[in-house]
Exodeoxyribonuclease III (Pollutimonas thiosulfatoxidans), 263 residues
Amino acid sequence: MKLATWNINSLKVRLPQVLDWLQAHPVDALCLQELKLPDDKFPLEAFTEIGYTAQWAGQKTYNGVAIVARQECLEVQRNIPDFDDHQQRIIASTLASPIGDIRIISAYCPNGQAVGSDKYEYKLRWYAALRDWLQGELQRYPRLAILGDYNVAPKDEDVHDPAKWVGDVLVSEPERAAFNAVLDLGLTDAFRQFEQPEKSFSWWDYRRMAFRRNAGLRIDHVLLSDALRDYCVSCVIDKTPRANEQPSDHTPVVATLVLPQAS
DNA sequence: ATGGTGGCCCGGCCA
């Protein structure tokens, strides 16, 4: 089973790239972030034509998340329950597998804009709500994978120039603590389960030729529950779409799980 | 030290 995440920064603009990528990398589920389109503009037919189904939570102009999958998405949940928020940042769904149901979550965590700003406070409140909800979700669904744009580089090795970024939004200590509080529920950063190239990043600013200089951050993550992590045999960042014409500023992250056959 | 680019929708927000 292959699971992937990609912040595509407008599905309208990036749809051809997403379809091309899916056909070259026929993953079981692809979590998308920053659709930037309302629900009635989601291009479902384009996905069904290539053998996928989808569930989504869209909104006009900003945010928006989806799960594109090869099998039916069950028990769909939009947003964090009991967290009053009109921004569409969460969609969760259940996929059947040989080892039982697997809960898949596509997450677009707030950016935070600048340390100390209103948006930064919202980011920390949002992370606390995510943690509280995931705690129960992990009890209901022990086999859980939450993939997305976390807008947090967990460690200095995830930052191209840690000295330049120290204390900044995306790397500040409260943000890293919020991210670690999620991991402490019993989730593992799949990418760091394996040996990886140095200076591995998933996002590069559009400005100042950041991709050419590999001036990036690793802020897109695949988190696996304890019941899933031992099935994971690889987790890789696919940098190639970042070199496309009209690229997203993010690139896909792909985790491969080898599940035993049902007995 | 500032502003650089890109997507939204068409001046300014958000990333």
